[in-house]
Amino acid sequence: MDPSRPLLGRGALLSSSVHAAAAVLLLLVLLLTLLRLPLSPITSSPRAAAADQRPPPPPPLEPGCDPTSPLDCADPRLFHLMMRSAIDAFPAVHFSRFGRPVPGDPPSASCDMAWRARSDSDSPSKATAKDYRRFAVARDPATCAYSVLSIGAYHSGPNARKPRPAARNATIAPPPPPALSRAQFAQGAYLAYVGAAGDRCKPMPHYLRSLLCALAEARYLNRTLVLDITLCLAASYDAAGTGGMPEEGKRLAFYVDVEHLHSQVPIIEERRFWADWDRWGAQGQLRARLVEDTRLAPTKFSKAKDTLIVRKFGDVEPGNYWYNVCEGEAKRVLRPVRQAIRWAPSLIQIVDSIVSRMQADFDSVHIGGNGEDLRRSIEEGLDGGRQVYVAGTGVDSALVEALKGKYSVHYLDEFEDLWGTDSKWYLEMKRLNGGVPVEFDGYMREVVDREVFLKGKKKVEVLR
Fold first, then answer.
1. Looking at the chain, which terminus has fewer C-beta neighbours within 10 angstroms, N or C?
2. pLDDT at 167
3. How far is CA 394 from CA 366, 367, 371, in A?
4. What is the predicted pLDDT for the residue at 367?
5. Residues 6+ positions from 211 with CB-CB distance below 8 Å
6. Residue 247: closest CA among 439, 29, 406
7. Are strands 247-251 and 230-233 parallel, antiparallel or unpaired?
8. pLDDT above 70 covers what percent of the chain?
């Protein structure tokens, strides 16, 4: 072989080997790639293909979802929906807090919810008011998703009203004090005023003057006063619809703090006393002294040992007024026990609530004259821009509206929710009265009105 000739055969063989090896390597890579892919059937039946094209089934109903069953008003989703609905429905109301919803009526389609809020008004008071309303709620029949259809009117959701402590046994009168034994009764010393009482059905200042006199004599004699704890309210304080007639059977506790009164001067309820006297004293077992002259000073019988001293009053006015006992010679020793009279806590709570709503920063005016006097007195005595409480009877609403341009004016009827049927005062009076509702009468209005007036920083009184 000629070594100078090129080796054509060897070069061709080498090129073919390289190409074969590359082809084998490529096949191996493809094979490995195919082995890593998931296998799928090459063919499928027409029935299987049709099944794959069916729409997905609807989602199942929530467990226990029955649109006719009672709503779960405690569901957080429904609670938040009701809160949002209330906020959207009343944009001018500033909500401070919401109460938990409770079933309404019917329970399958409504929930009651309470809240505290204040209105967006010009009044500087930040006090909140309570409301409770009924929400009509619907549920989607497929998914049971909630939606609020409507919100009821003011106080339309009574099931959400939280019972007040005073509402417990609201129809049960307070129990009578425990009965005295014969020995306890006989150890006591008593003073009773009997006869035709000229003080009956008189205006309250007259009644209280006579009551203070009786208390003063009982204290001087160191005796328990036998007292009728009911009174007759004069016709001048009649509530609307009573026809201007005196009202018998009013309890003294409606107006006066009887517990404080008893702590100052011992008292015993009249009916209870005479029932015990009939059992143990009427047969002469206990001694009694009768005093028929109202002008006889208590100094004349202060040493008496009798169990009972009775002052008897005649039929002729004004000689049969109780306060006559404290006139003349007795005036030196009988001083009215004025500290014994405090207004009933229920009335003072109304006063405090009114003052709180005005943030204890207000001036006050008491009307005793005509509208021009009122306007002039306010403008002369009080600074503009102040809160002004207008007290007195016959408040001129037109004048009050005219004054609102210069003052923030308030008056008693603005706070009538404090003695309404949902108020603490109403429930307490109903309890005291054996379950019978009590009217917020004219004298109660007078007491509250006057006490709020006296709380003003500046006080202007327009006299007649």
1. N
2. 39
3. 11, 8, 10
4. 80
5. 322, 341
6. 439
7. antiparallel
8. 76
Nearest to 388 by CA among 416, 355, 365: 365
pLDDT for the residue numbered 389? 92
CA pair distance 253, 45, nearest whole angstrom = 94
Nearest to 172 by CA among 419, 427, 432: 432
Q: What is the rounded CA–CA span in Å between residue 208 and residue 341? A: 9
Q: Which residues of the chain have pLDDT under 70?
A: 1-26, 28-65, 119-128, 163-178, 196-197, 239-244, 369-374, 394, 463-464
| Rg of the chain, C-alpha, whole Å | 44
| DSSP tag of 418 | G
DSSP state of 99: P
The pTM is what? 0.63
> pLDDT digit string (tens) for 50-81?
444 454 554 444 555 677 788 889 888 999 99
**Buried b / exposed e across 154-188, counting CB within 10 Å, b at 16+?**
ebbbebbbeeeebbeebeeeeeeeeebeeeebeeb
pLDDT on residue 282? 72
Distance in angstroms (rounded) separating the CA atoms of residues 77 and 42: 50
- Could you give the CA distance from residue 33 to residue 23 in angstroms, rounded to a whole number? 15
Other CB atoms within a 10 A radius of the CB of residue 392 amount to 19
Q: Exposed (0-12), middle (13-18) or buried (19+): which is 298, by Cβ within 10 Å?
A: buried
Which one, of 340, 370, 346, 373, lies nearest residue 438 by Cα? 346
pLDDT of the residue at 332: 93
Report residue 31 as tokens.
């094979």
Closest CA to 134 of 116, 109, 151: 151
Backbone CA torsion sign across 385, 387, 393, 396: positive
Q: What is the pLDDT of residues 378-420, one digit of tens each?
A: 778 888 888 899 998 767 777 778 788 889 989 999 999 999 9
Distance CA 335, CA 217 (A): 8
- CA separation, residue 3 to residues 7, 159, 343 (Å): 9, 119, 143
Dist. CA 459–CA 452, nearest whole Å: 11
The encoded tokens of residue 226 equal: 């036998």
Q: Among residues 111, 105, 109, which one has the least CA distance to residue 76?
A: 111
CA–centroid distance for 359 within its chain: 18
**Own/partner long-range contacts of 244-250 (Cβ < 8 Å, ≥24 apart):** 246/201, 247/441, 248/201, 250/441
Q: Hey, what amino acid is at 281?
A: G
What's the token pair of residue 349? 């709570």
